[in-house]
Amino acid sequence: MGGTVPYLTVDDGRAALAFYAAAFGATVGERYDEEDGRIGFAALDIEGAPVFVSDEAHDYGAYAPRTLDGHGTAAVVLAVADCDATYAQALAAGATQDRPPAPLPDGGRGGWLVDPFGHRWLVRSS
Questions:
Q1: Cα(110)–Cα(87) distance, rounded to whole angstroms?
Q2: What Pfam families does this protein map onto (predicted)?
């Protein structure tokens, strides 16, 4: 696999996998669950784009935004076929609107939202 893959740390892995499926149509490929029930690793596919997800693992320095008072240090840009439809679907699944879909400077269209786990997403289409 080449390129860059976002690896999101969440505070409720099972709920996150359900949200990403409902919001973005994500499917889960490879997955590893810890003995205590936490998700150690899950590989998602969202419209052909890979995204990795795991529960927090403080011993590895992996903290979720909600644990850090809702602050994250990066955002995910998700290219989709229909920005408005995907954005609405994500809101219906539980995301919070940041900035609604609008024209982007490069001629595309995009809108910002925050998932229930504190990660910011730019959902965009060409």
A1: 9
A2: Glyoxalase
Compute the chain's Rg from CA coordinates.
Answer: 14
- CA 5, 23, 70: angle at the middle one, nearest 5? 70
List the one residue out of 72, 74, 73, 77 whose CA is nearest residue 106: 77
21-63: per-residue pLDDT in tens? Answer: 999 999 999 999 999 999 999 999 999 999 999 999 999 999 9
77-100 pLDDT tens trace: 999 999 999 999 999 999 999 999
Given the structure tokens 């989709």, which residue do they identify? 80
Angle, alpha carbons 11-16-22 (nearest 5°): 160
Question: Class assignment of domain 7-125?
Answer: alpha beta
Helix (H) or strand (E) holding 52: strand 49-55
Q: Do 76 and 51 meet the contact criterion of CB atoms below 8 Å apart? A: yes
Residues in the chain: 126
